[in-house]
């Protein structure tokens, strides 16, 4: 069965998955990039930019697992780029260069239609304008039995949580405060939605939690 | 210098320091007691009820430290008991029996005056009706140079945070979701208030964070 998964989604101690004021220079909002420090030193992460070094510890295991058995991605438009409103032209193709780290179809939620973009390495960005259920159906069809990984941003994960569509999440909490930004859980009753924490594994860099629907 | 400290204050992954619907049977709200599972097995905690056994690991070290150099406590009325409104009589003397685990003066915030209660073992409950600043002044005078420990509940900690009166906090995050209850950080910008996380230590039972004012 194809599952909808969230992986390596990182929160601050005070519950923010991204800082405020996302823009071209701060794709994760002010202070948001540092949330992911636990990830940047891992071999799996560094391999993505051609670097052979990096740690192979628990943090790396969670990064590696996040890419395993993924047949399609879904992400919100805020994760795809900083542009809001109508697409001014076809030039923005994501943050990730010509060969993005997805290598599978990626379904981008947006209110503004746009033709698919075929990138190098197997990534194609598809723009879905008819809602999160439709994006999930399309992603399932494309994933060919593998899982669908839900990226971000926070607002997108919140939408799928509220509809009980997420099967499991790997969350990390980084040892920092963000003060403001996008809060993952505010106003969402995770217990009522049927979620439980089934595992905790901590490293010096972050604490990892597995959250599943009962 | 006498500091105002929060220790062993535990949150769920989704940010709640207590569950909903506190009452006589559920002093920490529904689900709230399980937040503190990391603490119940420690030697320091078990010693409080005369049991010599218990773990002496990192979790225990945090519990032990929480009682060191404490000259007075401040707590909200919700931590003192389940009664709301006027005191119906003098019979309620806290959750902790004749010999509470404080052994120093305890200042209870309330809107309803009441005479002090002298308990066994050095604990005296004083009822403060003129606000959090007054309680802090009284506690400082009573602490005789030692620190003041701020207990709970969540609402009380939030009041002192907003006034930047807390010098440092030891928070623990337990590997569970509460779904609803009292959220510690909602609407509070910890960075703007000057707080930073200076330490993370994890155990299989909880992740401990030290948060200090810069």
Q: What is the number of independent domains of chain A?
A: 1
How much β-strand is present in the residues of chain A?
25-35%
Largest sheet of chain A: 9 strands, mixed
What's the CATH superfamily of chain A, by name? Dihydrofolate Reductase, subunit A
Q: How much helicity do the residues of chain A have?
A: 10-25%
What is the distance, rounded to the nearest whole angstrom, between the alpha carbons of the first and last residues of chain A?
16 Å
Shape of chain A: globular
Quickly give the structural class of chain A.
Answer: alpha/beta
Mean pLDDT of chain A: 95
Assembly state? homodimer
Per CATH, the architecture of chain A is: 3-Layer(aba) Sandwich
Flag low-confidence runs of chain A. none
Provide a brief overview of the structure.
The structure is a homodimer of 214-residue chains. Chain A has 214 residues and is of the alpha/beta class.
């Amino acid at each position: 069965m194809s599952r909808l998964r969230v992986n390596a989604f990182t929160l601050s101690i005070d519950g923010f998955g991204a800082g405020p004021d996302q823009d071209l220079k701060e794709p994760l909002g002010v202070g948001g990039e540092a949330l992911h420090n636990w990830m940047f030193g891992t071999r799996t992460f560094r391999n993505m930019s051609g670097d052979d070094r990096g740690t192979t510890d628990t943090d790396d295991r969670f990064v590696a697992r996040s890419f395993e058995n993924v047949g399609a991605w879904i992400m919100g438009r805020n994760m795809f780029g900083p542009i809001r409103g109508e697409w001014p032209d076809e030039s923005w193709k994501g943050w990730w260069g010509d060969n993005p780290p997805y290598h599978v179809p990626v379904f981008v939620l947006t209110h503004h239609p746009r033709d698919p973009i075929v990138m190098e390495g197997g990534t194609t960005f598809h723009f879905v304008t008819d809602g999160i259920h439709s994006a999930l159906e399309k992603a399932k069809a494309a994933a060919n039995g593998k899982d669908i990984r839900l990226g971000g941003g926070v607002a997108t994960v919140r939408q799928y949580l509220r509809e009980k569509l997420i099967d499991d999440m790997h969350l990390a909490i980084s040892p920092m405060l963000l003060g403001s930004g996008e809060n993952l859980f505010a106003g969402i009753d995770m217990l009522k939605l049927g979620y439980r924490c089934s595992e905790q594994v901590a490293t010096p860099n972050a604490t990892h939690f597995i959250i599943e629907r009962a």
